[in-house]
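Revision sheet: structure tokens.
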Amino acid sequence: MQVEWVPASKGPNVAITVPTLDALLTDIETHFSEKKGFSLATLNLDHVVKLRDDAAFRAAYLAHSHITADGNPIVWLSKLARQPVSLLAGADLITPLAALAAKMDVPVALLGSTEDTLQVTADALQARHPGLKVAAKIAPPMGFDPTGDLANSYIAQLEQVGVGLCFLALGAPKQELFAAHAGSQTDSIGFVSIGAGLDFIAGTQTRAPAFMRAIAAEWLWRLMVNPKRLAARYAACFGVLPRLLGSALKARGVNARD
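Predicted:
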């Protein structure tokens, strides 16, 4: 199933390709068993803004094999378009994917953040998921080029130690650019972009309380915690909503006729 209503300024629209967690885990299990690579991005409003303005980011996104809905506005608009999807944020995918990797004896890598965060996170994940093997922990330096020579050396390192799943905590657009580039270099590793997910596990960043996530107010929590960094970003996100609403309504009409 493809949920294809998010408009692009140029080229094809971005499509949510995985609507539910069950569908995702079933497909990833097949990829693991066949030692087949993949790349997973989680679409939110900030990404929509970047997709509109950044051609390299858009090309990287379109190269991904799996795209889920990250953010309640994407979920609500998909429902309006008569193409319902579940909320599958990157940080929430770590636990089920790590559990699946442990079950299937798939070595995991953590790439991003800091060395201390990676060590704490690796210890926590291995404690939560007996049998999970964290085979590589890579903290790129500041200014890391996700498609440069250092990136290529990381990809070679991941292949050398037999990694089958790599969690990317580089932030957008860097993590998606790296995933698309790595996917063109190797066909045996799955790359999953998770943003601040490792920091949440390590406790170096605090995620919104569960009750705020339950009422779809995680964005408000983040804005209150870091207003200087996020105010302009969220203003841009609100700015794309009218166009997204129009696109979803158009898709709704088409789906109603079908």
